[in-house]
Amino acid sequence: MKKSIKTLILTALLVMAGSLSAQSLINGGFDYMQLRVGDNKPANYPGFHVGAATNVALSKHIGVTPGIFFSRHTADNKTAVAGITHHSKYTESTVNIPVLPNVRLYLSEISYFYIFAGPEFNIGVSAKSDNWVDGLDAHLEKNYYDDKTVSASEEMRRYNISIMFGVGFKLDFVNITLGATGNLFNQHYKNDIDQKAYRAFVSAGFVF
Fold this sequence. Notes:
The chain is mainly β and 208 residues long. The protein is 8% helix and 66% strand. It has one helix and nine strands, in the order αβββββββββ. The longest helix has 16 residues, at 2-17.
């Protein structure tokens, strides 16, 4: 499994490296992910992302941007039961490979506004939960990519596909983007649990 993940990441890097004449971007920013399981109350997880992309121009106004990003989301959800605080901490890390067609509207020779939309391939790196109660040392820990710690119904898929869309603005060498993603295939676990993942993000970086 680790070998196949490395192969996908290497492929993305080679595609980016093969476009030496294209514009390269280094971006990072903040994420806000929401997970919904069936009709249950959604859980919210703030996070961050960082990575690089290459914009390959197909014409003056149309291009496609492959990239590779690392993202991590975590939150400690607290609930009070009979005056005792119960903690449920969840942390999920993924490698994301977007391939985004885009349309640009030039404001000057070096500055433009653009919109983008396309698929994002998500490779799960880790997904762990830690549950405990204030005042007790006992922790219940789970790794959702390891069937030794979770049941078959809880084990997550390592690969998913999302749809990403948003807007961006390039001003000289600075690049700013706003966007969102959602599961293209509504299946986060290996079985048929109805879980949907949504993510909103803001990024800033440099173009060279």
